[in-house]
Write a structure and sequence with these properties.
The chain is α/β, with parallel strands linked by helices. Helix content is 55%, strand content 10%. It has helices spanning 3-11, 20-31, 47-57, 67-77, 85-96, 106-109, 113-118, 120-127, 139-147, 155-164, and strands at 15-18, 62-65, 100-101, 133-136, 152-154. The termini are close together.
Length: 167
């Protein structure tokens, strides 16, 4: 069993926090799957990536987020065409209310070492990581979190494991 498989089995059915770009992929894919490759903020992903992400997230009881991550997702989604925005807003609100939102004041987050190196949203991830698996595609962030003893998986590893038939 790989380290990634061990981490996944430890948290399966529990809590997972999804980093900004992956959360945007999850929301855009759930909104309009074909839009994934046509929207500049998700164009680096494929519909298959969305399917892997959605399948992975289905294995968890709770998706954790923070106001800082939701704000980043909202800002990125602002690039969607104007005619879609009312429908997007409804979709975003409907899905976001199913998440467990953990709030830590920015002032507190800005005193963490992670803020200096990664910024506010990633400091919020660090702050919300207790009893929660972190899913990111940011190798630098995942390395830092691992060095802090936090359970983290990198999405690119999930894609690799999916291609190999694991997880």
């Amino acid at each position: 069993m790989t380290i990634e498989e061990s981490i996944f089995s430890q948290y399966r059915g529990k809590r997972v926090l999804v980093d900004t770009n992956l959360l945007l992929l999850y929301l855009v894919g759930g909104f309009e799957r074909k839009r994934i490759t046509r929207f500049k903020r998700t164009a680096e992903f494929s519909e298959s990536d969305f399917e892997v992400l959605a399948s992975f997230l289905a294995a968890f009881r709770t998706i954790v987020t923070t106001p800082h991550l939701l704000t980043e997702v909202n800002s990125l989604a602002n690039g969607l065409p104007d005619d879609l925005k009312p429908f997007w807003a409804d979709h975003f609100a409907l899905i976001a209310k199913t998440f467990l939102e953990i709030y830590e004041p920015a002032e507190s987050l800005m005193r963490q070492p992670s803020f200096v190196h990664f910024g506010l949203a990633d400091a919020a991830i660090h702050g919300a990581s207790e009893d929660t698996l972190i899913l990111t595609e940011d190798f630098r962030l995942s390395g830092f979190l691992r060095s802090q003893g936090i359970s983290v998986l990198n999405f690119r590893d999930l894609i690799l494991f999916k291609d190999l038939g694991a997880l």
